[in-house]
Write a structure and sequence with these properties.
By secondary structure, the protein is an alpha+beta fold. Among the domains are: 6-47, Ubiquitin-associated (UBA) domain (Helicase, Ruva Protein, domain 3, Orthogonal Bundle); 55-149, Elongation factor Ts, dimerisation domain (Tetrahydropterin Synthase, Chain A); 212-250, Orthogonal Bundle (GTP Cyclohydrolase I, Chain A, domain 1), CATH 1.10.286. The protein has helices at residues 6-16, 20-29, 34-47, 82-85, 88-104, 109-114, 125-136, 179-182, 185-201, 213-229, 237-252, 267-274, and strands at residues 59-67, 71-79, 141-149, 154-160, 168-175, 258-259, 262-266, 277-285. The longest helix has 17 residues, at 88-104.
Length: 304
């Protein structure tokens, strides 16, 4: 009988999301064979499927589909454990749903769930999700999605951060001066780089005009109170507030940010030199609190 160590139990727990005692039991029953232990856990979890609905689906993946460079969708699909989220069945399902939304121009979760599945004709999307649940034995939640459509001058670019296990994704729409320019490698490459910039810097807004009066007033108030607490001279308050608000814009508005590939330039400068504009973007991270989030009018919370 192989020795079962605490490290082995923890590793199995991280891979499966199962309880510590179940992991220890599985390792004992499988003589420390991880593949057999995982299979054992799957069976145990399956036997308790009726209780699974009480568990929170807080893990998952982001999937993006772009169709003919005209229509695109970004989707967050949730599971209970990271173990299931990393499985091929779950990732394939997320990609299927993204394709479904992009091709059918989906506008709400309710309508998409009742549509005929493009991946498995003859069944609805809800039935397709249930068939994967039957195999994986974990709750699966289509948390949210966003559909974007563009015209001949537009370019849709997607970025999914694979090193983060598909838990972060960006969909961006840029507009070029002509259909020919939109199809050029230069513009399409720039659009992809913008998507990567958004993934890395997480801007809250597209431009300064998107910052609400309430948010701006709050930032001005914070800047003023901070200056007072730091003992700055009263006559310097206006310039200090102005400078700190400018810093807020540079950190939170995409076009005001420093271009990551050349920090001496702003994103706005790069866009102007390239003759393109950013129309909108969506940035999803698995499990984030999306209540009240607004990114250039692109992100919205959809019903679960």
């Amino acid at each position: 009988m192989a020795e079962i160590t605490a490290k082995m139990v923890m590793e199995l727990r991280e891979r499966t999301g199962a309880a510590m005692m179940l992991c220890k039991e599985a390792l004992k029953e499988s003589d420390a064979d991880f593949d057999k232990a995982i299979a054992y856990i799957r069976v145990k979890m399956g036997n308790k499927a009726q209780d699974r609905g009480e568990r929170v689906a807080g893990e998952g993946v982001i999937a993006i589909a772009v169709v003919d460079n005209q229509d695109a969708a970004i989707v967050e699909l949730n599971s209970e454990t990271d173990f299931v989220a990393r499985s091929a069945d779950f990732k394939n399902l997320a990609t299927e749903i993204a394709e479904q939304v992009a091709r059918t121009k989906g506008h709400s979760i309710e309508t998409v769930m009742t549509q005929d599945s493009l991946a498995l004709p003859g069944t609805t999307v809800a039935e397709r999700i249930n068939s994967v649940f039957t195999k994986l034995r974990e709750s699966i939640v289509l948390k949210r999605f966003e559909f974007i459509s563009t015209d001949a001058n537009g370019v849709l670019a997607a970025y999914v951060h694979v090193p983060a296990s598909d838990k972060l994704g960006v969909l961006v729409e840029v507009e070029a001066g002509s259909p020919e320019a939109a199809q050029s490698e230069a513009v399409q490459s720039l659009a992809r780089e913008i998507a990567m910039q958004i993934a890395a810097t997480n801007p809250r807004f597209l431009m300064r005009e998107d910052v609400s009066a309430a948010v701006l007033a709050s930032e001005q108030s914070i800047a003023l109170e901070t200056a007072k607490n730091e003992g700055k001279p009263e006559g310097a308050f206006p310039k200090i507030v102005e400078g700190r608000v400018r810093k807020f814009y540079e950190e939170n508005c995409l076009v005001d940010q420093a271009w990551l590939r050349d920090p001496k330039k702003s994103v706005a400068q790069v866009l102007k030199e390239s003759g393109v504009t950013v129309k909108r973007f969506v940035r999803y991270a698995v499990g984030e609190n999306i209540t009240g989030v607004s990114t250039s009018g692109a992100i919205k919370e959809t019903a679960e």
